[in-house]
C-alpha cells in the first residue's frame, strides 16, 4: 500500500510539473522566480500571485509604488484609413471622443445581444492607427471577433502587419506617416512580441523617471488616460489599481532590463493577489467575474462607457435599447464578521442578488464586494449575505471604495 501511495504521489507530482511546463510564460518568468514569487496558473499563464505578504504588497502600492508584470495582456493595432469608422461600429463607447493623439478610451466590445465579449482600452495615435489592449483570457476570442466583424464591415483584413517603429523624433513621426499611408484600408495585427510592465502608486512616476533615462521629459506633462511613444516603448498613464502610474509596453527582449532597473531604484514587485484587492477597492470590473457574454454593460456598472445618445450604430446597441436593465452593480460593506466572496447570495427587500467580486479590503480593514442586485435597491440599503448557511448583515455603498491611498466610500 505504501508503495502504491508513493507511486500515486510521484504521478501526481509529474502531472503537476507537466501542467506547469505547459503554461505560457512571460519574459519576466525567471525574474519572478529569482525574487521568490509564488507562481500559479492564471488562465493558462504561469504568473506570480505574491512575493511575500499580499497585504504588504497592497499597502506598498497605496502608500509608495509597486511594479506588476502584465505581459499576459495582448496588444492589438487597428490600422488603415477605415480604422476609426470600424471602431465606431465595433465598440460600445464612441471613439469620436478621441481627437488628441495619445488619448485613451475605456470601452466594452459587445455581442449582438448586448453581452460583453471583453472590456478594453483603445489609444488614438493617428487617424490610421489605434492601439487596443485586451484581456489575456479573451485575447484569441477578441481578435477572431474583430476579424469577423471586419469581414462583415466589407473591408480587407490582411495578414498581421509588423508593429510600427515607436519614436519621439520628427523622423520617427515621418516614418509613422509613411506607414499609415502604406497599410490597407483596415489591418488588424496583434503583437505577442510586446511585454507590459505596470508601475503604480503615488511615487510611481518618479521611480519610472529614475529607472528610465529620458522618460521624464516625455511623460511629465502626460495627462491621465493618455500615452506617448519613447523609442521602442509605449508609455501610458493608465492602470488598474486606483493609483497614479504608468503601463509600459516594451519589446519582450528588453523587459527584464527595465524590470531590473526599476528594482534597483527600490520598486518592489507585486503579484496578482494584491492586484485584485487593489482593483476591487478602486471599483474596477474584472472580466469573467463582474461581467461576461451573458451580462450587458448596463447591468455591470458600465453604463458610463456606452454611448446610446448619438445616432452612431454599434454592435449590441439595438439589444440594449430594446431591453432596459432590471439589475445593477452596487458596492457592499460587510457589517458582521466574515469575508465576502464571489457567488455568495445577496438577500434584498426586492429579491435576490449575487456577489460578483469580494475580498477583505486592506485599506478599509473591512470585507467589501461588488454585487449585482435588483434595480430597485438603493445606496444605503441594508441587505443580508448568505455565508455558510448564515445570514450576515451588509450595507450597500457607492463604489469605488478607495482611490489615491484613501477610503472614499461612506461607511
UniProtKB/TrEMBL annotation:
* Protein's UniProt keywords contain Transferase: yes
Single GO MF descriptor: transaminase activity
Q: Subunit details for this protein?
A: The glycine cleavage system is composed of four proteins: P, T, L and H.
Which residues hold substrate?
247
Q: Which keywords has UniProt assigned to this entry? A: Aminotransferase, Methyltransferase, Transferase
What's the name of the protein?
A: Aminomethyltransferase
Role, per record: The glycine cleavage system catalyzes the degradation of glycine.
Under InterPro entries, the record lists: GcvT/YgfZ/DmdA (IPR028896), GcvT/YgfZ_C (IPR029043), GcvT_bac (IPR022903), GcvT_C (IPR013977), GCVT_N (IPR006222), TrmE/GcvT-like (IPR027266)
**Locate the GCVT N-terminal domain: which residues?**
30-309
Alphabetical list of HAMAP family matching this protein: GcvT
Q: Where is the Aminomethyltransferase C-terminal domain?
A: 327-401
Q: Which PANTHER family match?
A: AMINOMETHYLTRANSFERASE, AMINOMETHYLTRANSFERASE, MITOCHONDRIAL
Is rRNA processing one of the keywords?
no
Name the catalysed reactions.
N(6)-[(R)-S(8)-aminomethyldihydrolipoyl]-L-lysyl-[protein] + (6S)-5,6,7,8-tetrahydrofolate = N(6)-[(R)-dihydrolipoyl]-L-lysyl-[protein] + (6R)-5,10-methylene-5,6,7,8-tetrahydrofolate + NH4(+)
**Gene behind this chain?**
gcvT
Q: Which Gene3D superfamilies does the record match to this protein?
A: Aminomethyltransferase beta-barrel domains, Aminomethyltransferase fragment, Probable tRNA modification gtpase trme, domain 1
Q: Name one GO biological process term.
A: methylation
| UniProt similarity note | Belongs to the GcvT family.
What's any one GO cellular component for it? cytosol
Cross-referenced Pfam families: GCV_T (PF01571), GCV_T_C (PF08669)
Enzyme Commission code(s) on record: 2.1.2.10
Question: What organism does the UniProt record list as the source?
Answer: Candidatus Gallionella acididurans
Its top-level enzyme class, in one word, is: transferase
